[in-house]
UniProtKB/TrEMBL annotation:
GO terms for cellular component: molybdopterin adenylyltransferase complex. SUPFAM superfamilies: MoaD/ThiS (SSF54285). Keywords: Nucleotide-binding. GO terms for molecular function: nucleotide binding. InterPro entries: Beta-grasp_dom_sf, MOCS2A, Mopterin_synth/thiamin_S_b, ThiS/MoaD-like. GO terms for biological process: Mo-molybdopterin cofactor biosynthetic process. It comes from Domibacillus epiphyticus. This is Molybdopterin synthase sulfur carrier subunit. Belongs to the MoaD family.
Length: 77
């Protein structure tokens, strides 16, 4: 199992800030693929992925127990 965290627009689309999913083995790209399939109305093209509070590349392994965050672009002013 991994713990997913959603922020900003994806949180609105998902209707929740976090959820747990069953997970055995894969990469950040595999988790992203799962998220795109689960929430097709959200544009993931600019989303950053963090695992255990560190930004990662999509090739980073994701292991059971990891916390994975999808962080959309943020603007301020």
């Amino acid at each position: 199992m991994i713990h997913l965290h959603y922020f900003a627009g994806i949180k609105e689309v998902a209707g929740k800030a976090e959820e747990d999913i069953d997970w055995v083995d894969g990469t950040a790209a595999d988790v992203l693929k799962w998220a795109k399939k689960s929430y097709p109305s959200f544009d993931f093209s600019s989303v950053q992925i963090a695992i255990n509070e560190e930004y990662v590349l999509e090739t980073e392994p994701v292991k059971p127990g990891d916390h994975v965050a999808f962080i959309p672009p943020v603007s301020g002013g």
